[in-house]
Amino acid sequence: MRYSMVILSLLLILACKKGEVKSMVNDSTTNTVVNPLNYLALGDSYTIGESVERYENFPNQLANDLTKKGLIINSPIIVARTGWTTSELKSGIKDSGVPEHKFDIVTLLIGVNNQYRGESKDVYRKEFKELLQIAINFTKDKKSHVFVISIPDWGATPHGQQSGRDPQVIAKEIDAFNVINKEETLAAGLNYSNITPFSRLALSDKTLVAGDGLHPSGKMYAGWVANVAPLVLTNLK
């Protein structure tokens, strides 16, 4: 009986270790086991990739690019919806049930709909600061693993040019919201990427705009990735 219990214990240990290995990746170059990284993307239509294929959206292109550069990343978890403002993103995160302290990378891009609806900049600042703290909580309190992206200028798109709104006014308002999110991001000690100038290239390059004439194309998102990926690599490697 005692001998049988020893054998059973050994089998259980081996089974557990086998299960653990399934959730890891073996790096043959260093002969070590590497845990894949978990990535959470928070935002609005610019995060889900409205009007482009899922593999073309910003989170998936970023994950693929980082994988090519040596990181191993699980498929991104995206909490975002077209039209969301800061307050709606906060509610969406709460309703999503996504657990805190489980992510190695968090990106945040939010605010265009606050600007589009003419909402208060003071309210935006308050809610954006709250979202920054939520993002920090998701990364096990590792501030260097939070990456904030500036709001692109939708006024530079064909839809923006034909919307009946003055594109110059749109640009000034977008810049004002970006001043706020940059100030709060840097004050919190987080990473900030300014992709807004690249978004304005859509004025002369329509391949940067999706078929709906408003949202970024996969090519535009690739440009954002080129801006953000080096920051992620520097902070995670």
From TrEMBL:
Superkingdom classification of source: Bacteria
Pfam family name, one: Lipase_GDSL_2
Residue ranges annotated for the SGNH hydrolase-type esterase domain, each copy included: 41-222
Name under which the protein is recorded: GDSL-type esterase/lipase family protein
UniProt lineage: Bacteria, Pseudomonadati, Bacteroidota, Sphingobacteriia, Sphingobacteriales
